[in-house]
Design goal:
Rpo4; mainly alpha; DNA polymerase, domain 1
Length: about 80
């Protein structure tokens, strides 16, 4: 069941979480939500981060860069 609905494998998910926490200081709870939901747009990412102290401070340009970097991690 989990494998059927998983958006990325465990190794990639760990890389994404570590990247978000280390580079952008996003709280672990929100990093986990980003991995689980796998947002594809700035609006989706903004909604996930709306209650995050760090996420509130990010600009749309920064969110766009995060999405691009996440895509690079997922395809590498």
């Amino acid at each position: 069941y989990v494998n059927k609905f998983a958006k990325m494998d465990a190794k990639t998910a760990k890389k994404v979480m570590d990247f978000l926490i280390e580079k952008y200081e996003i709280e672990e709870l929100y990093a986990i939500n980003i991995v689980n939901i796998n947002p594809g747009t700035i609006m989706e990412l903004r909604i996930i981060l709306e209650k995050s102290f760090t996420g509130k401070a990010l600009t749309n340009k920064q969110l766009e860069v995060i999405l691009e970097e996440l895509e690079d991690i997922k395809t590498s």
